[in-house]
Amino acid sequence: MQRSATSFRARRGRGLATAAILTALVAVASSPARTLITVDEALDLAFPGCRVQRETVYLTKAQLTAITDLSGEPVASALTSRYVIQRDGALAGTVYLDTHLVRTLEETVMVVVRPDGSVGRVEVLAFREPPDYLPRDGWYRQFDGRALDDDLRLNRGVRAVTGATLTARATTSAVRRVLALHRTLEKRDTP
Predict the structure, then answer these.
(1) Residue 58 pairs with which residues in a beta bridge?
(2) Would you say residue 5 has pLDDT above 80?
(3) What's the pTM value of the predicted model, to 2 decimals?
(4) Which end of the chain is more exposed for a tag (fewer CB within 10 A), N or C?
């Protein structure tokens, strides 16, 4: 009798653990991807009425090394895309998308780079972490006009966000990576 009670409790414990795991998996799988704005919508908002040309770029090993050295951030892939924006025949900006992990889930940011190589704006396109980890829009405005330099780091020239430290770190890294990518592709030696 003692043996069957112990065996029942063990089976019940495994069953509860399995149920908890299945519930968590269903919750993660069924949670909607939080796409805040599409790429086309973001491009239209940032550059209304402009000509947009998408380019696919295959980075060389030398370019990957240069980007990593400039930004201090690893580059996930040698394949990247960018959007070259023209207004009245003149370059208005270049747009890059950077998708990266925040904590365990992804964020996609759009980084607009002005013709002078500085940040035009940063917009969050998709955020899959809980909404509490997403900084307010005003936090992203601190990147506007910034160039790739030593102050473009969290807790230096970029303010941290209580409760969203990982997002702030991941976004700052993304902006550094994009500016280094842009500078490398444009062969810029100065910010």
Answers:
(1) 79
(2) no
(3) 0.79
(4) N
